[in-house]
Write a structure and sequence with these properties.
Layout: H1 7-23, H2 27-34, H3 41-49, H4 68-80, H5 87-101, H6 104-116, E1 121-124, E2 140-142, E3 145-154, E4 161-167, E5 172-178, E6 184-189, E7 198-210, H7 219-252, E8 254-255, E9 258-259, H8 264-293, H9 298-323, H10 335-348, H11 352-373
Parallel strand pairs: 1-4
Antiparallel strand pairs: 2-3, 3-7, 4-5, 5-7, 6-7, 8-9
Helix pairs in contact: 1-4, 4-7, 5-6, 5-7, 7-8, 7-9, 7-10, 8-9, 9-10, 9-11
Length: 374
């Protein structure tokens, strides 16, 4: 059985890697760290012009129509380059929410603008620290007006529209809000990785448009499952880049007259990093299959992809710093760019602990169903 992407997607991956190598060297995320720019607007425009923001959007809605697998391929390269752009917020979350739950009119209105990069979208769901609980949401809509506060919304300071999780009858439901309209207040918050900005967003009777397909239990979980897979690919891309960096340094850094990579301690470290990356990649591929085929196993596949990617991202970027020794902790080295991003992405959709609980719950429910059927 062939688990590799198609030749078309491999070509897209290679093209994306060449493009980002040229247009997004480490100097680009460093520029964001050293200035007040919230993101690399020039890079974002170039990405939109290449059609990446519309990769999964069908052609009838202004997209390229390559499907969700193309987003996974692009996400890995975005992660490899630690690109400071709102790709995950706009593509994995806002675009996906409208494709999954939006009406035909909403798709016709919003998807072409998201595909072209004219608009940046995001998803606002967290209201308090800890695991997401749809039954404890305070944000609510009355008479088409949304009131509530969302915390640490990714790219919330630069996004044009937001899909907002609100209190519903059987669970959370989703509403679309223009973040530049009246009744919306945004406050930028400082995070561990300033190359991906976040903001607290307060809604005070802001005009809200419901996504009709989102009414019912499990809506937010479904969206997070779909988003977790490309996010896992982005995390794998960053982990692979950190592994490559550590491997290259271990070959060129000499101690006691020999490369440090020849010492057993470094060999073991690099081998464990490689194992973590490959485990995460395998689980990400499983998730990609589930997303592409809309398989019933998606909740499980998304969970294992998310867990493996979070653990690999943290471990490999940390060990990359350790491999570089004292130099690895300094601002001059690029190690911290990957460590920052890995820590941030490890929390964006809920931490690994939350996804482990989700996985256990899903497996328990399926095993119970199988036993009852038997």
């Amino acid at each position: 059985m062939n688990f590799e992407f198609s030749d078309e997607l491999i070509q897209l991956r290679d093209q994306a890697r060449r493009f980002l190598t040229d247009r997004c060297p480490p100097a680009v995320p460093r520029r964001i760290l050293d200035t007040n720019e919230p993101y690399a607007a020039d890079l974002w425009r170039a990405i939109a012009e290449m059609g990446w923001t519309g990769a999964a959007i069908p052609e009838e809605y202004g997209g390229v129509g390559l499907g969700r697998l193309a987003v996974c391929v692009l996400a890995e390269e975005i992660g490899r380059a630690v690109a400071p752009v709102p790709f995950s917020s706009s593509v994995y979350l806002a675009t996906e929410a409208i494709m999954l739950f939006g009406s035909e009119q909403q798709k016709q209105t919003w998807l072409p603008k998201l595909a072209s990069g004219e608009l940046i979208g995001t998803f606002a769901f967290a209201e308090r620290p800890g695991p997401f609980d749809a039954t404890k949401l305070n944000a609510a809509v009355s008479g088409g007006r949304l009131t509530g506060t969302k915390l640490a919304v990714p790219d919330g300071d630069i996004a044009d529209i937001a899909v907002v999780a609100t209190r519903g009858g059987a669970g959370a439901c989703l509403h679309l809000v223009d973040l530049k309209a009246a009744g919306v207040t945004r406050e930028t918050v400082v995070t561990f990785d300033p190359t991906r900005s976040h903001a607290n967003v307060e809604f005070s009777a802001a005009q809200a448009e419901p996504l009709p397909g989102s009414i019912g239990a499990g809506t937010v979980r479904t969206l997070l499952d779909y988003a977790a897979v490309p996010m896992a690919f982005e995390q794998v891309g960053g982990a692979q880049a950190a592994l490559d960096m550590a491997n290259a340094y271990a070959k060129e850094r000499f101690a006691f007259g020999r490369p440090i990579g020849s010492f057993q301690g470094i060999k073991h470290k690099l081998a464990e990093m490689y194992i973590q990356v490959e485990l995460a990649r395998s689980n990400a591929y499983y998730g990609a299959w589930a997303v592409h085929s809309n398989a019933a196993e998606l909740p499980i596949a998304a969970s294992v992809a998310r867990i493996a990617a979070c653990e690999a991202g943290w471990f490999v970027t940390k060990e990359n710093i350790q491999t570089h020794g004292g130099m690895g902790f300094t601002w001059q080295m690029d190690c911290h760019l990957y460590y920052r991003r890995a820590k941030l992405l490890g929390l964006n959709l809920g931490g690994a602990r939350e996804w482990k609980h989700r996985l256990v719950t899903e497996l328990r429910a399926r095993n119970t169903t199988d036993l009852e059927a038997a």
